[in-house]
Amino acid sequence: MVKKGEPIIEVEGIDTRFGDHVIHENLSLTVKRGEVIGIVGGSGTGKSVLLRTILGLKKPDAGRVRVFGIDFSTLPEEERRLHEQRWGVLFQDGALFSALTVAENIQVPYREHLNLSQELMDELAAMKIAMVGLRDTAGDLYPSELSGGMAQRAALARSLARQPEILLLDEPFSALDEITRGDMQALLQTIIARHGTAAVLVTHDIDEAMILADRIVLIGDSPGRQIGEWTLESLRPRDPLGPELSALRIEIMKLLRAHRRASAPGASDAAPAERLPADAAA
Prior knowledge:
By secondary structure, the chain is of the alpha/beta class. It has two domains: 7-86 and 164-281, Rossmann fold (3-Layer(aba) Sandwich); 101-163, no CATH class. 36% of the residues lie in helices and 24% in strands. The protein has helices at residues 47-55, 77-84, 102-113, 118-131, 148-159, 178-195, 206-212, 243-263; strands at 7-18, 21-32, 36-40, 62-67, 70-71, 87-90, 166-170, 198-203, 215-220, 225-231, 280-281. The strands form two sheets. A seven-stranded mixed sheet has the order 6-7-8-3-9-10-11, with helices on both faces. The two termini are 32 Å apart.
């Protein structure tokens, strides 16, 4: 069992490729139990590929990934599936099963991994529906009958079905309007704080990372590697328009632009972008 504050995800010097195209090169990061880490970067920097690598859907070409202290590539399939029950995943579009109701979507992990009565599964689904702020009648609705915000709440409920130790979030709110996105960010903060869940948030939205994360990691491209890291110590709720976070946003953008200039074709003789210290505070 991983104790609070100990590493729960360890990415150690990974390289990932698709054919001759290098996605990541010598990329390392660590996530501790109860920590929320925001992974930000431009399009094409391999943020989602990194999440797939952590999930074990993409095997790194070099280096290794350990989750709960385990290198999943060494495990038999049956044992691996047992450990996979300890995390939840939330995708950008929710990825709800269109032929199932909200309640039935939430019950999918129970049906797949547990031998529970229908009555108990109905009770558990109702609890998760209430947890994410949906009406109790939402359980009978199909995904096509939900608004974007309702669908993401339902998908969040499903990702929380097994009380996961880790949440992996891939651009979870990017398709929502600004007000709904803010509501979902507040809801996610509350749930993570209540349960002490570790979370990896992949996002292109620097403000979202500043609002939700304890630590931000900036991934550069050509190839993808960590070029900056910041620990956020300000209390929540955070105002992205306040002076501290406004200054941090500018700092992140300056570093990202400098990296892109240095990585542009014909810039091989240019000085590399400055790497900021890991303890640079908001």
